[in-house]
Automatic annotation (TrEMBL), chains A, B:
Domain of life: Bacteria
Domain (HTH tetR-type): residue spans on this chain: 23-83
Name under which the protein is recorded: TetR family transcriptional regulator
Region (Disordered): 1-20
Signal peptide per UniProt: none
DNA-binding region(s), chain positions: 46-65
Organism lineage string: Bacteria, Bacillati, Actinomycetota, Actinomycetes, Micrococcales
Organism: Subtercola lobariae
Length: 206, 206
DNA sequence: AACTATTTTCATCGTATGATGAGACTCATG
DNA sequence: CATGAGTCTCATCATACGATGAAAATAGTT
């Protein structure tokens, strides 16, 4: 912004930018890249458009992130506490595990620090094989695998897979496609609508 | 193919192509476009790559379909009998409606005439606003709306939305992300695993 | 104040894209 | 066999892309 304003107003000061905290600029580029990935898709997002959105020289994006793949990687990596909270939720006592999982999902999508990352990950996993593999590993090993831990019956993996499928379908309806009624319900109502199904998948009769 | 062979072998016959049934070429272009959309995304699919895959001159793609949007439209339009079968499934007697719906979904994804179209539609709806609107209309009005018809209780739309969400989550796991165990189970097992949930959403206690 | 390493800008390269127009070709008529 | 409409190919345009290198600007150190 400062950069563009200088140009626009045509200040006497040289066009070369002042130093700014590297982390700040990097974060701004990542955020801009994520938005472009979401709106334009992986192929549609260009270094130039990302730079424009982050208000930065296109070559600078290339300086921070050598390739589009590394940008995509940075844009789809969740903060560590998200993974921690996931672990906590899927390790909850069996009787309340369904409730805890759906609460975790809903609150993560609502949080500004994780929602856009989930959004970008879900979308880019369809095109980019690397992101897909990341998501597959995360879902399969961490989620489906871990959720199934300490499930009493057989069908452990099937049960966890069904839990995951219900959650993914909910996310797509509510957060990505924004289909009514799931998109406009309150978090509370969504949780109470879905939790029983998850719980039945976890330890109900099949 | 004939075209390329002529070039490769260098026959005396002129390079200009012979007549071919317009429908055949058009269908080949649509199919090639769909594959490119699936593999490369909407922005990543190029007229040239589509033409190469369909073994056709790039300008010919432009001759048949003036814009990428019209190609995308053609590639994501399901055959009419798919819509008919959907109507039939969601109009089944309430007691067996869940079963009928999941059977319809699974068999549609398995069929070569509809599976790739569903695949492309699911993927492209994320980027292309027009496809998204098509899917939203199709899901929202035709599916969620119609499924809720003749449901006894209140919560009609919520029930239909939950049915839809479970189905979408299943599709994503099984057909797009190909996550185990849902991806490798037989159609029969998937149907019997999911049908009870759908039925509970339709007319169970909430 | 001079020196060095890092960050940022600018100009430019080769390539690929969507689009278009001119013309070659085929085929069904007259 | 001449004509004209529909089909297909080729060559080309302007534009946008990712990438790179040279140079300018800054910060930190001495």
């Amino acid at each position: 912004m400062m950069r563009l304003m200088k140009k626009a107003i045509g200040e006497a000061e040289s066009g070369r930018g002042p130093r700014e905290d590297r982390g700040v600029i990097s974060a701004r580029i990542i955020s801009a890249a994520r938005d472009e990935f979401i709106e334009q898709g992986v192929s549609g997002a260009t270094f130039r458009a990302i730079a424009r959105r982050a208000d930065v020289d296109p070559a600078l994006v290339h300086y921070y992130f050598a390739s589009k793949e590394r940008l995509l990687d940075a844009a789809t990596t969740p903060p560590p506490d998200f993974l921690d909270n996931t672990q906590t939720a899927i390790s909850a006592p069996l009787a309340i595990r369904g409730q805890r999982i759906i609460e975790h999902v809903v609150s993560s999508w609502a949080a500004p620090s994780t929602g856009p990352i989930l959004y970008a990950t879900f979308l880019c996993a369809n095109v980019d094989e690397r992101t897909r593999e990341k998501l597959r590993a995360s879902m399969s090993a961490n989620f489906i695998g871990a959720t199934s831990q300490r499930l009493p019956q057989r069908d452990r993996l099937l049960r966890a897979g069904l839990v995951s499928s219900q959650i993914v379908g909910l996310c797509w309806h509510r957060y990505i496609w924004k289909l009514d009624p799931l998109a406009t319900m309150s978090d509370r109502d969504v949780i109470s609508a879905v939790a029983p199904t998850l719980q039945k998948y976890l330890n109900g009769r099949m």
